[in-house]
Amino acid sequence: MKKGLPERDLAEPAQYSEEFRRKIVPLICAIVFFSVLNGTMFNVAVPDIAADFALSPAGVSWVMTGYIVVFALASAIYGKLADLYPVRRLITVGLLLFNIGAFLGFFVPWYPLLIAARILQASGGGAIPAMGMIVATRYFPPELRGRVLGALASTVAFAAGVGPVVGGLLAAVHWRLLFLPSLLTLLAIPLFRRLLPFEERRPGRLDMVGALLVGGSVGFLLLFVAHRLLWGLPVAVLLFAVLARHLRRSSAPFIPLELFSNLPYRHALLTAWLGVSTVFGMFFLVPLLLRHEYGLDTLHIGLVIFPGPMSAAILGNVGGRLADRRGSTVIVRAGLGLLIGGHLALALLSGAGVVAVSLGLIVCYVGFAFIQSSLAKTVAATLAHKETGVGMGVYNLTFFTAGAFGAALAAFLIEFFPGLFALSRVSDAYQGVFLFAAMGAGAALILFRAAFPKEP
For residue 107, with 0-12 CB atoms within 10 Å meaning exposed, 13-18 middle and 19 or more buried, which class applies? Predict the structure, then answer.
């Protein structure tokens, strides 16, 4: 007899037992922790990687942007596949690929191969947020989803907090050691296979042509933004046009176009794009600011960043519980307001010392944790149950693609601003980019308030 939960009607999430929910949330949080740790550790090591391979900020940004592009596309693919295949199978495949990439990344000697290892790792790592969202929205009723998403947001924040410190300690020996902690997620595979329900494969197919067109169009757009390759923009526009034509004609498109006829869903995606891109740009810029302006080494960069994500780790669960009690849209608006304040603080005070930078980061990270714990619940509430897999997959795609775009745009702007405005101080360029980020977060808040004037 097979172990684990029997197959159930996934349209009735309330029938899953309390014991199942009590076990599955910590397990999902554990792999999310190592997934985020993998990203934040490399974030603080960007200056060391750039020095080892003699790369410019735009060149080394592909350690993050290349990873995030594939990670974003993979999260959408896994979300789509969750409508067809058992969750336990998808998370097994994802964790195996994630760890194979980590193992290879530890050994490869050349930068292109390093990027290839990161891409392989990202192709598996994309399963982690996708399955986290599926677990929260498929196996939990609406009145409990905020708590689950809040727990995930707190985990993300905690990992983001310890990541810079752990990354600094490991990178002080050698940045290649940053690949090793990911291997611990192998231990989660047998636990997931025992706990998650057995499900039959459902009819349908994956539109790989559509998936590749999405990845290609986003990738060429990032080439244009990050590397100023002018030909990247027309290629991206062409691929977007081909994608739109393909999605209209396909009988089973990668992204069903009728999703975007849902106005609240569409506006929530635009809010995520605008808000999240500013956060990932900040993630990329702050370590470079602390290195270039204040001459800090990797460990001390991590210590300056540490209070921000740790504050978010404490308050992320609070945001999730408030989303269940007060409504998710209220918490999204509060998060965006905090994000605006944090970016403005960094813009005005980043040249005033590392304490000022750390305080600005606290506000930004808490705002981001509130957005994480509540925006996904807002998005899920706009979707019919049959649209949950693909709808949340597109949300993940938007979320992480916005992150890649934000990091690439920040790398471009930090090189563009000094020449455009004849800036004499390093901090002036960073302040200009942070001010630009505050404007982006402000636009996200205006859009969200127009789309969700009050809690439904």
Answer: exposed
Does residue 358 form part of some domain? yes
User: Which of the listed residues 253, 286, 318 is the one where a domain comes to its end?
Assistant: 253
Q: Are residues 146 and 189 in the same domain?
A: yes
Q: Are 268 and 383 in contact (CB under 8 A)?
A: no
pLDDT attached to residue 420: 53
For residue range 13-25, list pLDDT tens digits in order. 444 677 777 888 8
Structure tokens at 354: 């590392």
Per-residue pLDDT tens digits for 167-226? 778 877 888 888 889 899 999 999 988 888 777 777 777 788 888 888 788 778 877 776
Phi, psi of 44 (to 5 degrees): -75, -15
For residue 5, tell me if it sits in a domain: no
Can you give the pTM of this predicted structure? 0.73
CATH at residue 369: 1.20.1250.20
- How many angstroms from the chain centroid is the CA of residue 82? 19
> Counting runs of H as helices and runs of E as strands, what totals does the chain give?
18, 0
Q: Name the strand (E) or helix (H) holding 350.
A: none
If asked whether residues 141 and 266 sit together in one domain, one would say yes
Q: Is the pLDDT of residue 92 over 90?
A: yes
Dump pLDDT digits (tens) for 288-307. 888 878 888 767 887 888 88
Q: Is 292 contained in some domain?
A: yes
Mean pLDDT, residues 36-47 taken together: 75
End-to-end distance of the chain based on CA atoms, in angstroms? Answer: 45
- Domains of the chain: total: 2
Domain interval for residue 224: 207-253
Do 379 and 319 reside in the same domain of the chain? yes
Cα separation values, 443 from 262, 284, 318, 340, 374, Å: 21, 21, 25, 10, 18
| 55 CB burial (10 A radius; 0-12, 13-18, 19+) | middle
Alpha carbons 146 and 350: distance in angstroms, whole number: 34
86, 196 contact by CB (below 8 A): yes
Dihedral sign from CA coordinates of 187, 190, 194, 198? positive
The residue count of the chain comes to 456
Same domain, 161 and 230: no
8 assigned to some structural domain? no
Rounded CA-CA distance 301/298 in Å is 5
DSSP letter assigned to residue 73: H
